Amino acid sequence: MAKPTRVLVGEMAGRVIGDGLVVLPGQGNSLAVTTGDGVVVLDASGRAHAPAMLSELRRHTDAPVHAIVYSHGHLGYNGAVDVWDAHNRERGEPAPRRIAHRNLPRRYARYRETHELQARMAAMQFPTRRTVAETMADLPMHDPTEVFDDTLTITANGRRVDVAHAPSEVDDALALWLPDDGLLAAGAAAPGSTIPNIGTPLRTQRLTIRWAETLERLAALGAERLLTEFGPLVEGGEAVRRWLTATADALRWLRAEVVRRMNAGMSEREILADMSYPPELFDQRWMRPTYGAPDYIVRDLYREENGWWDRNPTTLHPAGPDAAAAAVRSAIDPARVLARAQELADAGEPQLAMHVIDLIAAGPADAPLALEARQLKAELCRRLAESTPAYVSRALYRTSANLLEQGETSWTALK
């Protein structure tokens, strides 16, 4: 069984954060809450996590697992629900309730239709030695047994546990709210260790202002403690309020700045080149570009208001990649292009070198100098991976390098 990807490990794993409140070592900070009805678990996580999670849970309580709450519908967060079912069955207890937002089954329906695509994207974003088929097998889906719209109180006895719709990373995200404890487990809405991962390269739109509005609603709960998805436990009402509202303020600032540039007629690439990010908004622990990145959000905001066209008429009805590459090579000196790309690389300009090498790196592998160009591009990808703070970009540079080193440019070659 593959080990959990380190980037998805919660900072608070294994911590007791209150009487009957334990953070399990799941995909992120999976919270176990002991109530009069049994244990409520936020995310069963994946099958690679389940044994350690159950072991940690049983170190603290022998109470039955009453409910599993799906923080959101991304695969991996509740792939091990069947393992938890089996655990209850072995103890002679009924299966846990499976509670999710009403939008989650629709997401699962999409993911079943595009299961191989989801596995390919996972293999690109979280590179391992697994094949696409092995990755698919590691991304099972278990439908919830209960869904809700806005809010739901889960427990009837003792400690109160509420869930609230918290659209953010996805439209089925929710937060766990323990009013008796003043504790908010915000799930995907508050990553905690990175700027919100809006606009990441392989994902659908995440609607920046919707996320900001969710953070503002969560701040209005008046929580005294905030358990973030991957980062720390934030303590103190004012610290929680600032963590949530300052993030929302930064997202609203990004929206205003991107809209201003769009209204002036700037293209996506022109906006990206023109943006700068004020430190008073972005130099915060929870806004670091360690997984998401500000320019990812800029791209997502642009996509909210624009179609796919990049304003270059060449791309409106493009020729096939092999034909276009052959036409470009017929008009240039490929050897000189390769030499110039190498010069830029040697001068410490890997991104400029990438733009140049693309003139000859595409097309059939038997084209003159194409394989050499792909090897240089792979080297440039690895160099950029070393200097890029955002995890997703680093991963995609590395998986691209792996592909190029095999002499390939099409992701259909990923097996």
Q: What would the keywords be for this entry?
A:
disordered N terminus; six-stranded mixed beta sheet; 3 domains; single chain; 415 residues; Serine Threonine Protein Phosphatase 5, Tetratricopeptide repeat; Metallo-beta-lactamase, Chain A; 15 helices; alpha/beta; seven-stranded mixed beta sheet; 43% helix
Structure description:
The chain folds into 3 domains: 6-189, Metallo-beta-lactamase, Chain A (4-Layer Sandwich); 252-305, no CATH class; 318-413, Alkyl sulfatase, dimerisation domain (Serine Threonine Protein Phosphatase 5, Tetratricopeptide repeat, Alpha Horseshoe). It has 15 helices and 13 strands. The chain has helices spanning 50-60, 81-90, 104-113, 115-125, 132-137, 208-219, 237-263, 268-274, 279-282, 294-305, 321-330, 334-346, 350-361, 370-387, 391-405; strands spanning 16-18, 21-26, 28-35, 38-42, 65-69, 97-101, 146-148, 151-153, 162-165, 174-178, 183-185, 225-227, 233-235. The strands form 2 sheets. Strands 1-2-3-4-5-6-7 form a 7-stranded mixed beta sheet, with helices on one face. The protein is globular, with a radius of gyration of 24 Å. The two termini are 19 Å apart. The model is unreliable at 1-5 (pLDDT under 50).
